[in-house]
């Protein structure tokens, strides 16, 4: 199995990587569609539509397709996004849960002194509460949401920002994610990248995006990462 040697920093995606968040996202999306009198959406559909941020998720729900209807009314889209944010916050993320091995593995990296960050396309307003709620907020030195910077994954902007802030070379950083957006961002930043098979990737195998290594379980990270000094 591939080994990543002398890693000095690890960046993690959130939804589909650390957290199974589809049940809460699907609930909020369905309540939004009901409020607007639009066709229902299922958890199975939402699973294949998330990963590009809330605006695109809601556009896909309104379009009932991975491809957003180019004639979608911008005012409707805007209203739907506001409703979605309200319903998602009101739901309290009660149905979301960490994947097996996540907390233990993060705790081990943290104890070993490796700095870690969240780089997610989820709106930044929701991220700190989720991390606190699941007891992992203290593991991360930076938390970057989908609207923290002008560009989000698959753009490498956030990864470049982290490299500059922490004075890292690309070979010092590892990105861990479940979506092609994570793989593309890491490749554009020329850092190492792990693809996880259990998350959300538009119904496609993560191996198709050609990460450096594919893992089936989060805890396997501890077997492939050698930390730098």
TrEMBL record:
Cellular component GO terms held in the UniProt record: cytosol
Q: Which reaction does it catalyse?
A: 2-phosphoglycolate + H2O = glycolate + phosphate
* Highest taxon, organism lineage: Bacteria
Q: Which GO terms describe its molecular function?
A: metal ion binding; phosphoglycolate phosphatase activity
Q: Cofactor(s) for this protein?
A: Mg(2+)
**A Pfam family for this UniProt protein?**
HAD_2
Query: Which Enzyme Commission number(s) are on file for it?
Result: 3.1.3.18
Q: Answer whether the UniProt record assigns the keyword Ubl conjugation to this protein.
A: no
Q: Which family does it belong to?
A: Belongs to the HAD-like hydrolase superfamily. CbbY/CbbZ/Gph/YieH family.
Protein name, please? Phosphoglycolate phosphatase
Organism the protein comes from: Photobacterium ganghwense
């Amino acid at each position: 199995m591939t080994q990543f040697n002398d890693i000095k920093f690890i960046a993690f995606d959130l939804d589909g990587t650390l957290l199974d968040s589809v049940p809460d996202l699907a609930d909020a999306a369905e309540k939004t569609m009901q409020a607007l009198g639009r066709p229902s959406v299922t958890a199975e559909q939402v699973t294949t539509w998330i990963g590009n941020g809330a605006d695109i998720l809601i556009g896909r729900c309104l379009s009932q397709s991975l491809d957003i209807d180019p004639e979608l009314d911008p005012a409707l889209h805007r209203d739907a996004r506001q409703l979605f944010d309200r319903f998602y916050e009101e739901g309290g993320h009660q149905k979301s849960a960490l994947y097996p091995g996540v907390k233990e593995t993060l705790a081990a990296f943290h104890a070993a002194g490796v700095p870690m960050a969240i780089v997610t396309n989820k709106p930044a307003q929701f991220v700190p509460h989720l991390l606190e709620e699941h007891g992992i907020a203290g593991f991360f030195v930076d938390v970057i949401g989908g609207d923290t910077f002008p560009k989000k994954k698959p753009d490498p902007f956030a990864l470049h920002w982290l490299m500059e802030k922490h004075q890292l070379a690309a070979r010092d950083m590892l990105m861990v994610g479940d979506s092609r957006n994570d793989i593309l961002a890491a490749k554009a930043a020329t850092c190492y990248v792990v693809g996880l098979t259990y998350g959300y990737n538009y119904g496609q195998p993560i191996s198709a995006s050609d990460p450096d290594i594919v893992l089936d379980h989060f805890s396997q990270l501890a077997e492939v990462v050698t930390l730098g000094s």
